[in-house]
Amino acid sequence: MVRKLAGLVATLLATSFVIFAASYAAPGDPVTFLAGGKENLTPQYLAAVRAQYHLDDPFLVQYGRWLGDAVTGNLGRSTQYNDQVGDLLLARLPSTLGLVAYASVLFVVFGVALGVLAAVRGGRTDSAVVAGTTFATSVPPFVTATVLISLFGVQLGWFPVMGGGSLWHLTLPAVTLALGALAIISRVTRQSMVEQRELDHVSVARASGLAERLIVVRHVFRGALGPIVTMCGLVTAGMLAGTVTVETAFGLNGIGSLLVHAINTHDFPVTQAVLLLMVTCYIAVTTLVDLLQPLIDPRVRRRA
């Protein structure tokens, strides 16, 4: 446990350093953007801006100050919105979390169901599921968003296509976000169950006359649950970054669209904060899944 927590802290430190360094490696002088892009700036004004934001300090000193502030919850002030970055994140976060939660429910339920169906039925059903999931993973999210908006939003008028935070507004964005993840989960579920069906204890249960449905539920699916849960956690953790394209396509005011706008306007405090939030959430979720793995699959606990 201590070793895992130490690794978590070390990963967060390394990631925060990369994020801070990458933001200031962007083309152009940060002072120009901090000054609002004004022309004919006097040397005295530029020096005042540098002093205000401590840009004359050595890089490591700047990083240490930024990291210390971030740990205490002070993420700085947006140069574009002229507001505290923390307040911007709190205002945008519910929309993004709702989208991720909705998409997670969709890909877990339908992904696992398709994987189980393919593994149990086999034959043409298996081939159809594999072909469908292969196609789903090959379509970029922005293409999926365009098709869904055109078909279900414009032509049929079943769903709103822009903005809003209700469940109905989030349906098309959630489907777009979940489609690729659904394909991954169905593949993992199928493969895990196929491997479990070949194990000795399943053959013994089948030879003892146990009904096939009970064999699938008690032995095959239960044995395959570990890899399925692990992959569901990993995919969910990575979804926060996937909201960038989806929120932009559907005009949602979430963390993803905030990041896009911050990058385009060189709003360094917001860019750094959003990237740090995404990485922190990913590491936290993957660590939680790792800690829960022995409870889900006793074989992991025995190997440890």
UniProtKB/TrEMBL annotation:
GO cellular component: plasma membrane
Organism whose genome encodes this protein: Nonomuraea zeae
Alphabetical UniProt keywords: Cell membrane, Membrane, Signal, Transmembrane, Transmembrane helix, Transport
UniProt-annotated location(s): Cell membrane
PROSITE patterns named in the record: ABC_TM1
Family affiliation: Belongs to the binding-protein-dependent transport system permease family.
Topology relative to the membrane: Multi-pass membrane protein
Secretion signal span: 1-21
Name of protein: ABC transporter permease
Transmembrane feature ranges: 99-120, 167-185, 228-250, 270-292
InterPro entries per the UniProt record, alphabetical: BPD_transp_1_N (IPR045621), MetI-like (IPR000515), MetI-like_sf (IPR035906)
Pfam families per record: BPD_transp_1, BPD_transp_1_N
Alphabetized GO MF terms: dipeptide transmembrane transporter activity
ABC transmembrane type-1 domain boundaries: 93-289
Primary site of residence: membrane
